[in-house]
Design goal:
Length: 512
């Protein structure tokens, strides 16, 4: 196999494609693709960073393969790339765009007879988050040379764009860009950023910055390279300090929004960050997503079961009074007045009612009890008994009104906790055996007090605590009205045990 002569040395800051294109310009005076084909090297393989393609080019050119491979961006899949051990999504690199610094290229070709042999396409220009030339402190230019030629980032394909480009207003590289470059050089940086994939670290920083600089409503698709650069600088101030600093920043941002908005939500407080993460294919992969989700869950009212960045929140910490009232089917005012009178809600600085929040951590179980509460009518219907039957159940503590546990003194306080109603029904199903027909001498609960010589609360207490092992219900019947009691069993029990109902002590039956 003939060696290419003379040897065109690889430059340590250029891409393998750039070096191949310069050799094409030298040896043929022409373009990259026909040159590679003449060498039997597949242009697509070289573009994908296949090591075999680089090895074979190096063999023909007499170049050290390791040097060239160090600058090789390998496509592990079309969507996941790798450079120097760092993996990142394809959009971490430029795609159809070719970035360059006009001053670098001008210096390259100065006094050179063949500019396309002299001009290097730098490796860091391939990184889409690198936007400033670190040598000349000017923004990089970006040319879209079209799908075919652009894919090879071949300066020869850019035509006059390269020669006519004038330096833009100087700026120094952002600290985020410097971080990218030094991480790819193997240096360590801030811990939180180093602990994640490089593209996640960079994206997180820029998104936080976009929120800081442009506010929650900014659309990422409408951001120019200059805006991203600006965002990266602002976000760096936060992300460089790690998880706690990000969390504090997000919480402060939510509080600030809460002062201005009726109801604070992910969109109107963290919009630009939240929307980007919500659209990500796997938000769980982004360390930023978990911090954002925690900030939302800890600071914003949510609906039970609401999904926040891929995770369902079954029991939100904060609820609005309006949403609880709506689930209870009572008016906002009815609920609010009782909660406010008891000090369960803090109406300070809340301009309108619907924004009033309940903090479920301050009063555990209040919201669940409210949302499961039933009126006397509803409770009686659920148990399939006449309303007067509820009184003995309340007396023995199997049922409670909300005011017994919470300091609520109106219509809401009178409601019964529906979860206890459910427990009574489940208890009956459990302790009462099913029969085909009514056994001899058995009576229902209406007739039982007279037949057994005791009162209804005592009978219910015995029944729900599992003392009446002979109690039955007919197949297909449910609820308290279906229960049939053996008066002989009750009388025997009352003779041998002293059952004194302590109404204050008694609570619902145990469920072990
Ligand atoms: Zn430059």
């Amino acid at each position: 196999m003939d060696k290419l002569f003379p040897h065109i040395p690889f430059s340590d800051d250029e891409t393998p494609l750039s070096w191949a294109a310069r050799q094409a310009a030298f040896h043929t005076g022409g373009r990259l693709v026909p040159f590679l084909k003449d060498l039997a090297v597949s242009p697509r393989d070289l573009w994908r960073g296949e090591p075999e393609a680089i090895e074979s080019l190096c063999a023909r050119a007499g170049e050290d393969t390791e040097r060239v491979l160090r600058n090789n961006i390998l496509a592990i899949t079309p969507h996941l790339l790798q450079l120097r051990g760092e993996q990142f999504a394809a959009d971490f690199t430029t795609r159809s765009e070719t970035q360059f610094c006009p001053i670098c290229l001008k210096e390259d070709r100065q006094n050179q007879p063949r500019p396309y042999v002299a001009m290097l396409h730098r490796l860091n220009w391939r990184l889409s988050h690198v936007r400033t030339c670190p040598t000349h402190n000017v923004p990089l230019h970006s040319v879209n040379a079209g799908k075919t030629s652009g894919h090879y980032y071949e300066l020869h394909a850019m035509g006059d764009a390269v020669f006519e480009a004038r330096p833009l207003k100087p700026r120094s590289p952002s600290p985020l860009q410097t971080y990218i470059e030094s991480r790819l050089d193997g240096k360590t940086g801030p811990e939180w950023l180093d602990g994640q994939r490089i593209d996640y670290a960079v994206r997180a920083t820029e998104l936080l910055g976009a929120l800081i600089v442009f506010g929650p409503n900014q659309s990422t698709t409408k951001m120019t390279p200059d805006m991203w650069d600006h965002a990266g600088r602002a976000g760096w101030e936060v992300s460089t300090n790690g998880e706690a600093a990000i969390s504090t920043f997000l919480t402060d941002t939510i509080s600030e929004a809460a002062r201005k908005k009726r109801v604070v939500g992910p969109q109107n407080s963290l919009g630009v960050v939240y929307r980007w993460l919500a659209k990500a294919k796997q938000p769980a992969d982004f360390p930023l997503a978990e911090i954002v989700r925690n900030a939302i869950v800890e600071n914003m009212p949510l609906q039970p079961g609401q999904s926040v960045l891929g995770t369902q929140v079954d029991r939100p910490r904060f609820r609005t009074v309006a949403s609880v009232a709506s689930r209870m089917k009572v008016s906002f005012k009815t609920l609010y007045d009782e909660l406010a009178a008891a000090g369960y809600v803090d109406p300070v600085n809340r301009p309108t009612g619907s924004a009033v929040l309940i903090d479920t951590q301050k009063t555990p179980d209040l919201v669940e009890a409210l949302e499961n509460s039933l009126s006397m009518n509803e409770a009686a219907d659920t148990l399939m008994i006449p309303q007067p039957f509820l009184v003995p159940l309340l007396n023995i503590g199997s049922l409670e009104r909300l005011h017994q546990r919470f300091d609520l003194s109106g219509k809401v306080g009178k409601q019964i906790d529906g979860r206890q109603v459910q427990e009574v029904n489940e208890c009956i199903e459990r302790v009462v055996a099913i029969v085909g027909k009514t056994p001899r001498n058995y009576v229902d609960l209406d007739a039982a007090p007279k037949a057994c010589g005791t009162d209804l609360p005592t009978l219910l207490h015995l029944l729900l605590n599992g003392y009446l092992s002979k109690a039955k219900r007919k197949d297909g019947t449910h609820g308290l009205k279906a229960v049939l009691i053996d008066p002989i069993e009750v009388k025997d029990l009352l003779r041998t045990h002293k059952f004194r109902i302590d109404y204050k002590q008694l609570r619902m039956v145990s469920h072990d």
